[in-house]
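Researcher: I'm preparing a figure for a lab meeting and need a structural model of a single chain. I don't have an experimental structure, so a prediction will have to do for now. The sequence is pasted below. Please return the structure as C-alpha cells so I can convert it later.
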Amino acid sequence: MPRTMQRNSGRRKKFFRKKYCKFCANKDLKIDYKNVDSLRSFVAESGKIVPTRITGTCAKHQRSLTREIKKARMMALLPFKGE
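Model: Understood. Here is the structure written out cell by cell.
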C-alpha cells in the first residue's frame, strides 16, 4: 500500500460551512460604538479584535467594526485588555 493511502485511510473529512458577513446578510444591523453587546462578540476574552477569517465579516464591515470597537474602548465601554 502506498504511503499516502495509509495516512488518509482512517480520517474523515470535516464538514466546512462557508462563513458569511452578518452585516451584509442583515441590513438592519448597524455597527455602532454605543451598541456594546453586539461589539463584544467580535472581541476575544484577551481583548483582541477577532480577525475576519474567524468571524466571517467582509473587509468593508471589518474596517468599520474595528473603528467602532476602538471608539468604544476610548469611551471606556469596552476594555483594552482582558482580565
